[in-house]
Design a protein that fits this description.
- This protein is α+β, with helices and mostly antiparallel strands.
- It has seven helices and 15 strands.
């Protein structure tokens, strides 16, 4: 039988071992940008996950084209990541539905609207009419200027808007892929969103003029640093996403359009009135996700933003009756609830 001194030493050893184990687990599980997306060392192996120096099969020395390359980790049958963006499923501990929706399915149902992910040209509704360039973004961001980045979309003008508003393009079209919105090499923005967007106004920026997107996740003030723990199923939005979206959809932050705008609804170039964005709800209550500026849960400073009503990737909701085929999208417009349930969720008429 152990004497009292030996027993105490045994307990001390067990407690010390347990503490070391917990420290080891926390260090190995907590990381900045997961997988090959950032956090590189001087002898990193991560480059080989996506690139080949002499035998690449796609542009930018990639081993496959985007989005196929991305889906080798983030696809339906992939095992390289816990985020299955094709079906909108978080496959990590606890599981759940991704906050972003899905590109092909969501909640086991086919999607009814999506952002493009495979380079298909789509309109960026609400873009244009602000910058002085004839081709808006493309006036500066083109092959001649060099002000482009890998994965950045090329730009075009909606055929229904451009002829009627010479000198200012509207509803620019672009062939979006994963890398148009996300930086595959990581960064300090929430969900490694591109750091190069510079909408005319921002609520927080870093560097000046370039929108900074933060969250209330653990370490979410700068996901590029050690200690960040992403939460893919619970809304932990803090600030910046509503401004980030205006990098393409600028005019949707104008409650009254600065210039006449063609929403391609048959009314032509007229003044447009829009729901206020980045606005606090006041006495209204909602279960929709909000930006929580103070990080203290539901409170008076919470504000409505783009993802309160819309998914970022794809939506499976249905539209019928008066809510069906509404211009300019003529689909479910990435909405979070059927028909116009997002309106009723706040206004409760």
């Amino acid at each position: 039988m152990l004497n009292k001194k030996t027993a105490n030493l045994k307990w001390i050893f067990l407690l010390f071992s347990a503490a070391l184990f917990l420290v080891f687990v926390s260090v190995t599980n907590v990381r900045a940008n997961a997988g090959p997306h950032g956090g590189y060392t001087a002898t990193t192996a991560a480059c080989a996950g996506c690139h080949r120096a002499h035998t690449a099969a796609a542009a930018s020395l990639l081993i496959d084209s985007v989005p196929n390359l991305c889906f080798t980790c983030h696809g339906s049958a992939a095992t390289g990541a816990e985020t299955n963006v094709v079906d909108g499923i978080y496959e990590g501990v606890g599981g759940g539905n991704l906050l972003s929706g899905g590109f092909t399915n969501y909640q086991a149902a086919p999607v009814s609207s999506t952002h493009s992910v495979n380079g298909t040209w789509q309109n960026a509704w609400g873009s244009g009419t602000t910058w002085s360039s004839t081709y808006d973004c493309a006036g500066c961001h083109n092959a001649d200027s060099g002000l482009v980045w890998p994965g950045a979309p090329t730009w075009g003008i909606s055929p229904n808007a451009w002829p009627t508003y010479p000198g200012r393009g509207q509803n620019v079209t672009m062939p979006l892929t994963c890398a148009s919105c996300h930086d595959p090499h990581g960064g300090r923005n929430y969900r490694v969103l591109q750091q190069r967007l510079h909408p005319p106004t921002t609520q927080q920026d870093d560097p000046p003029g370039y929108v900074l997107v933060t969250s209330n996740e653990v370490g979410g003030q700068n996901p590029n640093l050690p200690g960040y723990i992403p939460n893919y199923v619970d809304p932990k939005y803090k600030l910046g996403l509503g401004d980030w979206c205006t990098g393409c959809h600028f005019t949707y932050h104008q409650t009254v359009s600065v210039n006449p705008f063609n929403a391609e609804d048959g009314q032509g170039l007229v003044t447009r009135y829009r729901h206020a964005m980045n606005a606090t709800l006041g006495t209204l209550t909602t279960a929709l996700p909000l930006e929580d500026l103070s990080g203290n849960g539901s409170s008076a400073d919470d504000q409505l933003f783009c993802l309160s009503c819309h998914f970022a990737h794809g939506s499976n909701v249905s539209t019928s009756g008066l809510a069906a085929n509404v211009a300019p999208t003529n689909d479910s417009a990435l909405l979070r609830l059927d028909n116009r349930g997002v309106c009723e969720e706040c206004h409760k008429k």
